[in-house]
What we know:
The chain contains twelve helices and two strands. A two-stranded antiparallel ribbon has the order 1-2. Helices cover 79% and strands 2% of the residues.
Amino acid sequence: MLNIILSSISQGFLWAVMAIGVYIMYRILDIADLSAEGTFPLGAVVAARAIAAGLSPWLAIVLSLAAGMITGILAGFLHTKMKIPGLLTGILILTGLYSINLRVLGAPNITLLGKETVISQLRTIIDDRNVAALILGITVTLIITLMLILFLKSELGLALRATGANEVMAVANAIATDSMKIIGYALSNGIIALSGALLAQNYGYADVGMGIGTIVIGLASIIIGERLLGTSSLSRSLLAVVFGAVIYRVVIDAVLYLGVNPQDIKLYSAIVLAIVLWLGHRTQDNNSRKGKSYVAQT
């Protein structure tokens, strides 16, 4: 039982990296972007092919990050320069990436069995696989979170946040909003692809279907974390995303432990997200009613 919990938490931290990428588009830029469904497996297949070719697993992660950022720049170009709506941009990207991912892999999936990965390197120091994955997940998540906080508090980061908060005012303040959106797309997709590379090495394989349900996991992590920890500051918001990803993974693994058919896990993921959204709206409605009642009394 302890191993199951440890495995859930370690995977939760690795998935948290992806959730942070989704957070950039969903909360900071306020764009409905579905490209995560294609970028996540892109990171996995690029890393897997690089490792299978004999490259360093760390270099494979860097290549995945670069591939994701290039994809994000393309998505940003489609959205800003070709004036394609954000939702359709994501659909176009994830559809096109399916064929690209198949082309990169050369097959529907590829195994990393017997290949050197980041996890196998850590296991030369730490014997327990789950502990190795946990240390990797916490380290990468911490680095990504700290770097993103520093960036978003910089002049460029504030311009990015202003673009998402109020684009009209951002333009009035001479902010190049199109450039900010492209930067946001690049950051988001790069981080998501990075998560795909890490999870492929943790699982020991890459599959073109790995991205199915990615956006649901990302949104569920964001919403669960925000409901539990709140969003009073940027740092708190990002920590909430990480916390939400861990809680979500523990809940899903608990459902599997109870004997649910793994084939139904995507259905249960959607149900969990729907319940969280519903409870969130109920809380907002109750707070709104209390506020109106207070105003009426005064």
